[in-house]
UniProtKB/TrEMBL annotation:
This is ABC transporter ATP-binding protein. Residues 247-274 are annotated as: Disordered. It comes from the Bacteria. Keywords: ATP-binding, Nucleotide-binding, Transport. Residues 26-248 form the ABC transporter domain. Residues 256-268 have a biased composition (Acidic residues). SMART domains: AAA (SM00382). GO terms for cellular component: membrane.
């Protein structure tokens, strides 16, 4: 195992026996042998990937593609048909809601049981139990049997235990989809915090927004194989295009082709996809209608700037879902070769959420551009505080920086030269 890896998966395969009508009793199995017929179904057909210490990866794909099976194999709930899994360090998981809880025991007793499963001693649990209870916000229910808990309370308790066992690896399967909005946001922020401390995280999620905010890399599993792997912003548009194509019926496809006939005639190769063209994903409850860059000095639209110029990003939107009153907004700047320069959002910057109107405009003013010469592009996104994406536009706008000096790198670092300074 390589020293900088904490997870190594090599040629992982898994098959299950799927019975058509399996007999439950010995009598049924003898008298109705035909009921014991089954087929072998391969869920994973040979996937391989590595995860480094402190890295967060997201596993995405349609239902039944094998992503949750992969997570259960990593957690050793089930074992592979063939292939190899190597993991380094203590593993904590949130795979199934309430897994490992005894329904007739109290929340407090289940903390001790669940934490001991993760490898903590009683002394270690004693030291952490106050933090676990405080994070779960279940103080008044802690001595009640967990069978009286709601699904949201189950999730609170399970998450509170999982993040307090000092794990090296945290495995999560759609667990953040349960619970009230405030606690989901609290869990999401806690994940960012423990990731910053070097914990390796593997998440299975259908929320691409959540994956993009936490994960460094996305692995798209399709039909038991890895179809695409890389930065979320590169993989997710391909996945969304694929999902859109598979859900359109033949009539819809025909209509789309007719609408695109004029454009298609101008394209020499219909199979070529412009990687740098704008692409949108999300549920479009809030829709981006226009994006442009403004030269602050001239107050005119521009795509070419000089280093240290002031630039303003203007984004117009339309609210399609009137029930959404507020949202978060973010931007991400990349160089044309994909090098990540800078990204942030209103949530990270701790500024007020966007107060939405039916139609509106948001501006981001860059006091000075310290990028060196090159071509750049900006992604923009509207989302809620849990990462649900309303509209994420990749390559929303492009611009070029001109520089008359011979500096090298991606950005200018302000500095001064001091020579022959006299001693004081």
């Amino acid at each position: 195992m390589q020293s900088d890896n904490v997870i190594e998966v090599k040629d992982l395969k898994k098959k299950f026996k799927v019975y058509y009508d399996k007999g439950n009793s010995l009598k049924e199995k003898i008298l109705f042998k035909s009921r014991n017929k089954y087929e072998e179904r391969w869920v994973l057909n040979g996937i391989s990937f590595n995860v480094k210490k402190g890295e967060a990866i997201g596993l995405i794909g349609h239902n039944g593609c094998g992503k949750s099976t992969t997570l259960k194999l990593l957690n050793r709930i089930i074992y592979p048909t063939s292939g190899e899994i190597k993991m380094k360090g203590r593993v904590s998981s949130l795979i199934e809601l309430g897994a490992g809880f005894h329904p007739d025991m109290s929340g407090r007793e289940n903390i001790y049981i669940n934490a001991s499963i993760f490898g903590l001693t009683k002394k270690e649990i004693d030291e952490r139990i106050d933090d676990i209870i405080e994070f779960s916000e279940l103080e008044e229910f802690m001595d009640n049997p967990v069978r009286t808990y709601s699904s949201g309370m189950y999730m609170r308790l399970a998450f509170a235990v999982a993040i307090n066992v000092d794990a090296d690896i945290l495995l999560i399967d759609e667990i953040l989809a349960v619970g009230d909005a405030n606690f989901q946001a609290k869990c999401f922020n806690k994940l960012r915090e423990i990731k910053g401390k070097g914990v390796t995280i593997v998440i299975v999620s259908h929320s691409l927004g959540q994956v993009e905010q936490i994960c460094d890399r996305t692995i798209w599993i399709d039909k038991g194989l890895i179809r695409e792997e890389g930065q979320p912003r590169k993989v997710h548009p391909l996945y969304m295009d694929y999902m859109s194509d598979t859900t359109l019926n033949s009539h819809q496809k025909k209509e789309e082709e007719e609408e695109k006939t004029t454009e298609s005639e101008e394209v020499q190769n219909e199979n070529v996809v412009e990687e740098n063209s704008p692409r949108d994903i999300g549920n479009f409850d809030i829709k981006i209608t226009d994006v442009q860059l403004i030269d602050v000095k001239t107050r005119k639209p521009a795509t070419k700037f000089h280093i240290e110029d002031q630039m303003e990003l203007q984004v117009c939107y339309m609210r399609k879902n009137k029930n959404i009153k507020k949202c978060e907004f973010g931007f991400h700047i990349f160089r044309s070769d994909g090098l990540d320069y800078y990204g942030t959002n209103t949530l990270i910057d701790k500024v007020n959420s966007v107060e939405l109107k039916d139609t509106g405009k948001i501006s981001v003013v860059f006091g000075a551009i310290y990028l060196l010469q090159g071509e750049y592009k900006i992604d923009i996104a509207f989302h809620n505080d849990l990462g649900l994406t309303y509209n994420h536009r990749y390559n929303a706008v492009e611009f070029e920086i001109k520089n008359y000096y011979d500096e090298v790198g991606i950005a200018r670092v302000t500095h001064e030269w001091i020579f022959n300074e006299k001693e004081k």
